[in-house]
Q: What sequence folds into this?
């Protein structure tokens, strides 16, 4: 059974940083594209970033501020978020193949 467990969310001031992690189990993590998605209140879930091997793609709204990475030995996906803005406030979800984590809340507010 695939399990994806996100961590690292919280409350941060505008301009601050957070690092999200997603621990994967029950899946051959290294062979799949992995990604981060987010859903803000009242909005649809949207893509933040994806990564396969060393190839990463980003939504325009986060380019230059967020960095996605993965450790295929630890079966863990990361999202380093810098220069956070209030509009980054959302629940962030990890996705690998057809599986989703339960999400971690990121709130950017002063």
A:
């Amino acid at each position: 059974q695939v399990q994806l467990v996100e961590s690292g969310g919280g409350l941060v001031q505008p301009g601050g940083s957070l690092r999200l992690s997603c621990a994967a189990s029950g899946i051959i993590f290294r062979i799949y594209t992995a990604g981060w998605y987010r859903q803000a209140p009242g909005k649809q879930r949207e893509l933040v970033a994806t990564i396969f091997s060393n190839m990463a793609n980003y939504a325009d709204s986060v380019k230059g501020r967020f960095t996605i990475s993965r450790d295929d030995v630890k079966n863990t996906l990361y999202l380093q978020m810098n220069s956070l803005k209030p509009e980054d406030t959302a629940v962030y979800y990890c996705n690998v193949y057809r599986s989703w984590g339960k999400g971690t809340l990121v709130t950017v507010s002063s």
